[in-house]
Every structure is written in structure tokens, then in C-alpha cells.
Amino acid sequence: MKIGLLFGSFNPIHIGHLIIANYMAHYTDLDKVWLVVTPQNPFKKYGGLINTYDRLEMARLATDYADKLDVSDVELKLPQPSYTIDTLTHLKEQYPQHEFAIIMGSDNLASLHKWKNYKLILRDYKVFVYPRPGYENAELASHPSVTITMTPQMELSATFIRQAIADKKNVQFFLPEEVLKFIESKNLYR
Fold it and tell me: Is CATH 3.40.50.620 the right assignment for the domain spanning 2-153?
């Protein structure tokens, strides 16, 4: 089985994430997409990062009825910070029957050369890239392991959603209904 890995803090997961995951699962040669909940991105500092298990639960709620989407907690069991190459190596050992690929935005492709062992990633794994405004011509876009997709673009961010919730704005159509109920029940991002 060919599995695409979409890494993210999912703080919270929103329809933009789900559109990307669904597109990759249904419009590429991937059989499934795993949303990998990341405890801490080594390149980012998170001030408003909520409990990892709440983010994991929201991702599960959002993908409950999606036939080709699953949620992975693999990075919660690995040493921190999480580096993609280490996660890929671990998954390859745990699931030798699967072929793994990475899903990333063109913004991440532009900085891939800064990642730990990025040449090994490009040598051993396919990389499916979704467009992000302002990052159309990444140097690695023509690499043989890289596939640029036509994933629909959406200018929606978890930062925007967290701020809207804090400001008591309506975020009804930005999140799956189950995720919004979970956020409200736990009074998150207030």
C-alpha cells in the first residue's frame, strides 16, 4: 500500500487540511493518507500549542468517516524534536509492507534543503507538493522524486481560526462540526 504522510500540528485541524489530505488520497496514486500529528516542529516555536492528545482527538474526529484518511500518533512515541527522516525510518521498520511518501506545501519544499538528511528523503521517498501562494518556483520542484499537484488552494490557517475563536467569532464552516463541538466542550483557544 502506498501511504502519503501529511505532517502537522493540527492546532486545530480545519477544512484546509482535510481538502489537502482528501485531494492527495483521491487524485494521486496514493492509496491512503495518514495525518501525522506532530508534537513540535523543530523549525517553529509554538506559543498557543494545545495539548497533543486534544489535537490528536480532533484529527480523529475530523477523519472518522473518511475512507482513505487515517490519523497517526507515531511522532508522539519518538524522541523530540521530531525529524521527518527519523519518523520515515521508524515507519519503514514498523510497516515494511507499505511504501511511504511525504505530502508538503510548496513553502516547505522551498526550505527542504534545511531539513535533516533531506538528500536521503529525496533519494528514498516520493514527495507530493501542494501549492502555496508565493512559493511557485522552488529549486527542488524539478527533482525526480517531487510531484507538484493541482491541489485546490485555500487561504485558511489554524492561527486565523485560533484568533477567531479567542475573539468569539463564528468559525462554523472552517472546521468539521465534530471538531467545533470538541473545541467548545473543552473551551479551547479562548
Answer: yes
